[in-house]
Amino acid sequence: MLHQSKMTNRTAFTASDIVAEIWTHLDLPPSALPSLHLPGATEKPVVRSSFKIGLLAQSTIALSALSAAVAHSILCVRLDSDPEQKEEDKDQKEVKGVNTPRTTVPLRHAVLEFQCEKLYTLSGAPPAESWGPIGGLHPTVDGHVRIHDNFPHHRAGALALLGLDETCRDRAAVAERTRGWKSADLERVGVEETGLAIYALRNYGEWDALPQAGAVGDFPVSVRRVGTSLSSSGYGYRRCGLNASSPKCLSGLRVLEFSRVIAAPVAGKTLAAHGADVLWVTCPRLPDIPGLDREFSRGKKSVCLDLDVSEDKEKVLRLVRDADVVIQGYRPGSLAARGLDVQDLAKINPGIIVANLSAFGPDGEWKDRRGYDSLVQTASGMNVSEAEHYGQGEVAKALPCQALDHSAGFLLAAGVCAALYHREKDRREGRRVGAYVVDVSLAGVMKYLKSLGQYEGRSGFEGEDLMVLGAPGERNKEEEAFFETRPTVFGEMTFLRHSASVEGFETGWDTMPMSLGSGEASWSGL
Questions:
Q1: Is this structure's pTM higher than 0.90?
Q2: Which of 117, 217, 356, 421 has the fewest CB neighbours in a 10 Å radius?
Q3: Among 293, 312, 405, 439, which one carries the catalytic annotation?
């Protein structure tokens, strides 16, 4: 039986249309939308791809910035128009709108931010290579699979499954072994039985026929309230105390981030750019990935804690009690298996906001599967369609940047800010306050990007490419303005500035990258 994936047609959408639609879906105040300014916005191709990556970049970054501005406005607004009004009555006053500062996201800068991990330098040297030696596309008896091997344990597991020594770095030897498998069988055994990161290459029709395709929602981000155990006074939860006098929108927001690789780290890094205090918790059993970790640790304090060690878990629980937000980007169920699902977290901190980043979303047969941007591109038909549009006879062609990862991260940050807005609105309007859950999936982003349509034929590969930059030291004045240079423990770092600006506020990072685990498990000092 075929399970056809229904998809809204958004082929005529502009970047402003995308922002407006998702903004409305998140039930954020429409009065804020006129405050958004999107210089350079165009429907023409600006990235060498058949997909409308330029639209996605500008709109998702805009959503994260505008929602941060709105969260600041509602959390810091003074409801004191009546000097005789009692303080508790002011808190109960209905929130009918907020004053939102002008928020600007230029197209070219946004497009560049979608490849920020490729653009920084340390002591003049480019980022270290993050891809492993056997990762990528390999032939099978009936097609192809993509192996993801950024982490050594995934690489060792894939080699063991294929009957090769874990020291093997020979792609030809790997291809010889994968040719003995059917694509779907290698995916099933690798992902479901062995816990690896291997997916079959599919076209759109093959993806749409899967039950999981129909389980992916029509919007890439959702926000929902999951508990109302508190009184309207909010007693028993840490009410976020944003610093109204700070030059940054989210100063005072405390974010506990459990993540690796790109998508969820983008969310934490984005909230940090707007002033949030971010504790990035990594597992000591997972290695440093220098090429990625130097970029995505910016703005954060790094702590290594093992949730399977009782002493470390107790430290995490203490951090949760005083946090506003928990971001988690590990395989779905990983934290829950260790007694840290949203219900457990809400018992510790009843007003907590839990932001989940997953590969395939919270519903469907694949909801518990691990996955990465490149694998979702492979499994969903994107790589095949991109190759068909390119027209050079390739079996598959990857997108020119990790567009699903980056947009998912910005949408997760937007979802967090939307949850802050709704939680405070609940409190002010006298409703019972509870925890909130934000869900974003790479597959949801894929479906939304696909719904925007693709440029006809090869036209997407023949237009202007805003991703092209001059080499360091040879950049023009506009390009140089996109970058900032700061000292770090790894050497002098030149990196891309955040592309969003909020009038009257600063954006950017005060904390530079540090070694994994070099910080203390404490909110003090942030």
A1: yes
A2: 217
A3: 405
